[in-house]
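stage 2 :: seqdesign
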């Protein structure tokens, strides 16, 4: 069981760019159109740096960037179950066609590349982690963020992002309804301080017993519950039941 403060959040998906868009989505959640072309502006970066970023990297930076002050040094946790599927497919296609592999494309396709790009572009010198779990990658990323807080960090950034995979993956990947990134700024609970808009939350795990999995990716469902004003939610994956409870 862990207790964390949700100091701030930011999210991006095609057509869902600002808090007002997400509040409207939370009242009637549905899959949004995603042709793979729409991507965040990342206007805070020079054009040359933007061009070097994959779509997944741009989604991650777009959501995390406004949650970190200009001179702050915060732990960074990147979570993604599937990672850079378009980049991986392109590399596999080159192998099939006996084409030379691009070292740059390969280097940017590995799972911790986005965390590395964040560190370089932000000048972050602290801890960073890249997590790939199952459908409950979101909860494992939050746990990693909580561990950073327990180790002494004043706040921690957690970003969970998935890109709608290419059609070739459709037989194996069915838990990404559309591309999205959800960033949370987590902090320690301080009962003497005013409660932030995000509130204080408790995450506990119990044993699941064959319940149906959540119909939405866990990060999106937590955001939906938050914006809908719900004080609790459950996410079950296999034998793991994750219980979210707002405590303040």
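stage 2 :: out
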């Amino acid at each position: 069981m862990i207790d964390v403060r949700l100091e701030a959040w930011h999210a991006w998906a095609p057509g869902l760019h600002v808090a007002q868009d997400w509040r409207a989505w939370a009242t009637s959640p549905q899959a949004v159109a995603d042709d793979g072309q729409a991507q965040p502006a990342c206007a805070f970066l020079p054009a040359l740096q933007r061009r070097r970023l994959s779509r997944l990297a741009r989604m991650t930076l777009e959501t995390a960037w406004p949650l970190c002050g200009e001179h702050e040094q915060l732990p960074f946790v990147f979570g993604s179950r599937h990672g850079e599927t378009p980049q991986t497919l392109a590399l596999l296609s080159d192998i099939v066609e006996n084409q030379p592999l691009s070292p740059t494309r390969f280097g940017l396709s590995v799972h911790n590349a986005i965390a590395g790009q964040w560190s370089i572009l932000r000048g972050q010198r602290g801890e960073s982690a890249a997590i790939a779990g199952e459908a409950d990658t979101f909860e494992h990323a939050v746990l990693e963020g909580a561990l950073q807080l327990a180790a002494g960090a004043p706040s921690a950034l957690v970003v969970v992002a998935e890109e709608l995979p290419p059609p070739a993956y459709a037989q194996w990947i069915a838990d990404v309804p559309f591309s999205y990134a959800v960033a949370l700024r987590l902090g320690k609970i301080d009962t003497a301080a005013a409660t932030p808009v995000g509130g204080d939350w408790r995450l506990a795990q119990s044993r699941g017993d064959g319940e149906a999995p959540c119909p939405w990716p866990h990060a999106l469902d937590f955001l939906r519950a938050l914006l809908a004003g719900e004080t609790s939610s459950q996410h079950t994956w296999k034998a793991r039941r994750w219980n979210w409870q707002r405590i303040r």
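stage 3 :: structure notes
- The first strand starts at residue 2 and ends at 12.
- The chain has one domain: 2-246.
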